[in-house]
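Sample intake sheet
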Amino acid sequence: MDLDVVGLSRLQFALTALYHFLFVPLTLGLSMLLAIMETVYVMTGRPIWRQMTKFWGVLFGINFAIGVSTGLVMEFQFGMNWSYYSHYVGDVFGAPLAIEGLMAFFLEATFVGLFFFGWDRLSKRQHLVVTWLTALGTNFSALWILIANGWMQNPVGSALNPQTMRMEVSDFGAVLANPVAQAKFVHTVSAGYVIAAMFVLGISAWFLLKGRHIDLAKRSMTVAASFGLAASLSVVVLGDESGYMATEHQKMKLAAVEAMWNTERAPAAFTAFGFPDQDARETHYAVHIPFVMGLIGTRSLETEIPGIHDLVQLAEVRIRQGIQAYDALEQIRALGGNTPVPADLKARFEEHSGVLGYALLLKRYIDDPRQASDAQIAQAALDTVPQVAPLFWSFRIMVALGIFFIVLNAVFFWLSAKRKLDAYPWLLKVAVWSIPLPWIAAEAGWIVAELGRQPWAIEGVLPTAVAVSNLGIQTVLGTLIGFVVLYTILIIVEMKLMLKAIRKGPEAEPAHAQGAHSPLIGTTPAMRTAPMITAE
């Protein structure tokens, strides 16, 4: 990445997004786990489940508060660092974000307060409804954000108005039903569920190793392992769907992830290992698994997956066609807003408007794409290749960790069924040390999704280099350093608060809360003095 204004602006947004994404998935997953735990409490009346819900709720609240503070900054960056982006696509991109704020965020924020302060003010069922609405609001928030992001990956339901130079919504239903957005939503949410499950599993394992809060830890591990196993399997299935969507709509991203330089005969092989060399345009020491990539990417044995070289040639053709659209656009704009556009000129623009964005790739080298040389066109076509090595390795790290999560959750699910969760201390230690791993997998997935889209801010429509604000390098660098310092402080604060809450452990339930639903009510005095055996 060049450290010019574009590069620094990209780096700033990337770092703030990576920081923010440390908090979001845990919020998504914990909200659902809280709802599940409280549902068991309401169904059984056992105070231990109320205690579990409140303990994990404290950790949820800490993470939620820090996550909100980091997320607000990102939305301001669209106006500060990406002003032309905001002008060009704000009419489309802004709608899901506005709905997210009005519908999901207010819903989520309102019921979060009721969750924490309503335990002794609401009935059990009323509080359970609040908890489920908190989880619903949290996941709704992710839905609208990912609809907006999915549109950046696959800009459907919109068209460019040549006189205002703004993208406008032509079919909001298509924006909502965007298959890329829907695949991203379910895949991202499932990843958040895995993160929360591993978080609960690891902390519960630590309690067991320390011999503290045994009942709470075992029940929490049972819920986490069951939930985590289902979520881990879902991530694999839904990740396959995301890969298929990339084959349909982002062929260059898929080719870069696979370091597939040349188009292979169908079905293409999967490169399990290798060292991509972007300068030499080849992958050294590649280890291939036959047929696998073709099956994953196309779900057939006959459809080819185009390689990077062929896609670069296709990009050059589109750039030349885009120049014709740019020429027609400039003629339309020269007419002014009050002069009718001649039918032939309008038809010429509409014929090539779908590839206008490719002509804008030339803006990095020349102000008027119509004056571009063959060498500049060739270079712009080559710019459509993202950084291959980071994509290649990020994807494989994500996949390897995903397989590990399935195995680990399956093992603890089996141990839970056998009531042997604490039988193997070394496995508990593995669970504790595995707590950071799902975040690594999630960040790797984010790198694949966002770095793989480059050089586009909006795939095929608006290049990143054109979308940036007209700022000085010192200004962007200063805010970049400021954000990194601020976000690092917030992470340290969250970790200290989390560790303090974990070391403190769950609070003892008040006597009235225990008595109200105690399984000892109605027993004889002899039974009350006898040891009570509870199910794990």
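Comment: The radius of gyration is 27 Å. The beta strands are 158-161, 166-169, 270-277, 282-289, 456-458, 462-463.
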